[in-house]
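Form 12-C: Joint structure prediction
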Amino acid sequence: MTQNNVKNNIRRLRFENGEMTQQQLADKADVTRQTIIAVEQGKYSPSLALAFRIANALNAKIENVFEYEEQDQ
Amino acid sequence: MNRYQKLSWLNLIVITATIIITTAAIAIEIHIRGFSTYGFWFITPLVILQFKSYLFKKPQGSDKVISDERDSLIIKRAVSIAYTTFWIVLVAASFLSFLIIGPRNSVPTITLPLMVIGGGLLMKIVCSVAILVQYAKGAADDTE
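Section 2 - Result
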């Protein structure tokens, strides 16, 4: 049995983009800061559209922002 | 704290205050007159809270996002939990009444509207608590 797990590199990419704050990223992605916090911590999986908006805001490809890990149980 | 958290806290405070005040008023009236007609005061928060949509709104000219897809998902989940709880409590209360009071006894007709009002209050409380719990679980580390 496998368990799906989506990880992200948002925090690292924010700091690589001129130390962008969570609020600045939220404004660019058109969401609230709370949502960016939840996505960064892996507590919320964004929709495909939001994932693309976050990637665009970080000037990165979506596969560099989000990583899909399959864990065998 | 975002708009939905503030509205949820408002729901809980108004409903709790109404329950305390109405229960006290009923107890006092029963003590004085032997019966009470204040049961319908429990509907007060359901009426007052209809106007909550005018509260905590986005200031005009502000381009800050107030609500996004995650907020919509949290509210949908909270409403679903509230409806499920309502049905479970309604079914349990109906069968418990039948088992405790018996099939051949009767209840006052005021029981039915009070059940509806009580159900409405229960749904508001459960929905508000569900919203606050979901936001609390998602915001453990609110730092830059």
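Section 3 - Comments
The helical segments of chain B are 3-33, 44-48, 69-101, 111-137. Residues 140-144 of chain B have pLDDT under 50 and may be disordered.
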